[in-house]
Design brief:
- There is one protein chain.
- This protein is of the alpha+beta class.
- The protein is 21% helix and 41% strand.
- It has helices at residues 2-26, 151-163; strands spanning 40-41, 43-49, 62-70, 76-84, 87-97, 103-108, 111-120, 124-132, 136-144, 167-168.
- The protein is globular, with a radius of gyration of 18 Å.
- The N and C termini lie far apart (59 Å).
Length: 182
Amino acid sequence: MALEKGPLLLLALGLGLAGAQKALEEVPIQPDFDAQKVEGRWLTLQLAASHANLVSPADPLRLALHSIQTRDGGDVDFVLFWKGEGVCKEANITVHPTQLQGQYQGSFEGGSMHVRFVSTDYSNLILYVHFEDDEITSLWVLLARRMQEDPKWVGRYLEYVEKFHLQKAPVFNIDGPCPPPR
């Protein structure tokens, strides 16, 4: 019985990976993207994911993007903060440029990720993050330099949410850095 299911599982896995690759190829990249222009503080205005349970409003631990930095050699750092009851931790995720300008890749414990800077005027930014570990997760984020939604950018972002059948998720913004331990 297990041998009969083996080819079906391989086929399902192959189709799933092919679908994930197709989805990645369907995601646009900002033409003439300049990573240095996205450096600095960003606020999350909207967030959507391929899995509804990715971010729970009841979870006491909050993860938020604080800022984006560039490094010599073209790497990009995402500065994140985890905050919760008695917990405050800064985390930096570094991604490396790929052959496509505006696309980056990196790895984390147990998985890999692709990041695409979909669209930006450097005051607003639509960011796509594709995680692969035990499952494949897509995350779309609308960021801005100020906590003011531009209807044009919200509309553009919501088109992607609809096109890729995403679930809206709660948004958290955290001022950093964490206070020193006592």
